[in-house]
Amino acid sequence: VLTKKWWHDAVVYQIYPRSFCDANNDGMGDIAGIISKLDYLQQLGINIIWLSPVYKSPMDDNGYDISDYQDIAAEFGTLAEMENLIAEAKKRDIRIVMDLVVNHTSDEHPWFIEAKKSKDNPYRDYYIWRQPQADGSVPNDFHSYFGGSGWEFDAATGEYYFHQFSKRQPDLNWENPKVQEEVHKMMNWWLDKGIGGFRMDVIDLIGKEVDKKVMANGANLHPLLQAMNKATFGDRDVLTVGEAWSATPEIAKLYSNPARDELSMVFQFEHITIGWHPQNGKWEPQPFDLIKLKKVFTKWQTELSDSGWNSLFWDNHDLPRAVSKYGDPGKYRVESAKMLATALHFLKGTPYIYQGEEIGMTNVRFDSIDDYQDIESLNLYYERTAAGVPHEQMMEGIYENGRDNARTPMQWNSDVNAGFSTARPWLKVNPNYTGINVQAALNDPDSVFFHYQKLIKLRKELPIMTYGQYIPLLDDHPDVFAYLRAQDDQRILVINNFSAKKIALPLPAEIQGIQGKCLISNYQPHQDLAETITLQPYESFAIAYT
Ligand code: TEU
Ligand code: CA
Fold it and tell me: Can you provide one Gene Ontology molecular function annotated for this UniProt record (predicted)?
């Protein structure tokens, strides 16, 4: 049985600092802007902020390319302001989880500047260098996730360096004990400042075996994480969540089984990648299939139930907006946003809310590729259209799955630039901000915001939401995601209509006729559950009964 942890029933709110709130009106979100919105986050009821990177960076990948792990990028503010954020959040019982990006650094990090100087520089082996092949070509055909070869030639020393992401994000060599030592030292420096833990960027890649082209889950990975745990956060009561695109439930147990002294949990992505094309990935999105999605949720809920811990999320700064992806951004935007919130928050695990999700922000469609900023979308647009993919097809992929969907400025009110800034924002605001914004949400007791607030409050009041067993129902229904949570003689029934259709739903025998207490609903609560109930478009409710 799992021993209770403070983060089991916590709710995390992810802030992408660039797009959250711009206090000094230079068009870029900043730390002072975050501090100015802490009361709003306290009102929502969240306990943890996962802060995407704010460290010094040339911003090639919006801060996921770090040139100084122990200083703050001028665009976001100063170290003093960062320490003030930690203190101000603490006053509101909110912990700050920092983003740890140590699979790679920026090419402007002093370590890399040194490493490039010569083959025998003491920092050379902080990174991964290989000789060209006899004909001068790249060491192998590894393709960067951001387009082009994963090898960049350095003429000064006549060797290639390895980068899984942009060529300005050289991979660190984690086989080098000095790299491990430097990173552990930096982590303790942040932990000593009172942060609440780390989100670990592409952590499944640090055990890579480059010559075998094994990137995720390399032989070194778990030994490295156990060493990191021991040297840094292991004896501190903090949250650690590893981003693991490659994780299966079996692998997730290796990270999150408390007996293994590695991490608290991981972000797994199977529920995301089932919607991707086997070859063309996110750029050729597949039709939404709820039965497939339910199978994945059920697998993770059951297999990770007692020997690990689930993270629960629809959105983050790399993913499209949930209400556009899985709900209806138009007529039933509010109903479907609330349905998605209920469907996720009653599952077993720690829920993550991405900035703007709590007010039902949607994807965006900019007319020109020049309006887009994300290095991944831009690189892949040019690479794929040059390879013959039609412009319209690539734009559809960007509209559906591009990362800028999540990065348009947070919509605070209906003033210019949605109250994000009085200056022109670094990325255009979604034009629908006039109707979709925090001020409108706080003025409407029936808004998506108050639905999230209630879900968070219920989690604090009902241990069954955190520890109850997950029992799937109606597995084969194509439009309804239904499940039970069970603890002792208590039950919570959760029913979610993932469609705009009115549905006559025959109920399973074991729940026919129950008399319960409606915990939350996005329509009028059902008085009693007869043999068949009628679900409205995107209707979703949770009923507690014994
Ligand atoms: O993302 C990991 C990552 O692989 C995603 O970029 C993913 O490949 C893509 O969105 C889906 O095609 C992490 C960070 O979350 C991301 O913002 C960074 O760009 C990336 O690592 C490099 O640090
Ligand atoms: Ca600013």
Answer: oligo-1,6-glucosidase activity
Angle between helices 333-345 and 448-461 (to 10 degrees): 20
AA letter at 534: T
pLDDT, one tens digit per residue, over 23-68 is: 999 999 999 999 999 999 999 999 999 999 999 999 999 999 999 9
Q: For residue 160, what is the enclosing H or E element?
A: strand 159-162
Average pLDDT over residues 250-272: 96
User: In angstroms, how far is the first alpha carbon of the chain from the final one?
Assistant: 23
Q: Whose CA is nearest to atom 8 of ligand 1?
A: 145
Query: What's the 429 CA to ligand 1 centre distance in angstroms?
Result: 22
Q: Which ligand is nearest to the CA of 380?
A: 1
Angle (CA) 472-474-479 rounded to 5° is 115
d(CA 276, CA 286): 6
What is the distance between the alpha carbons of residues 352 and 519, in angstroms, rounded to a whole number?
21
Report d(CA 489, CA 49) in Å as an integer. 35
Q: What is the CA radius of gyration of the chain?
A: 23
Which tens digit of pLDDT belongs to each residue from 405-421? Answer: 999 999 999 999 999 99
- In whole angstroms, what separates CA 108 from the centre of its chain? 26
Q: Which ligand is nearest to the CA of 27?
A: 2
**Cα separation, 325 vs 367, whole angstroms:** 19
Say how many C-beta atoms besides its own lie within 10 A of residue 281's C-beta: 14
101 lines ligand 1 (CB under 6 A): yes
For residues 472 and 541, what is the distance between their CA atoms, to the nearest angstrom?
15
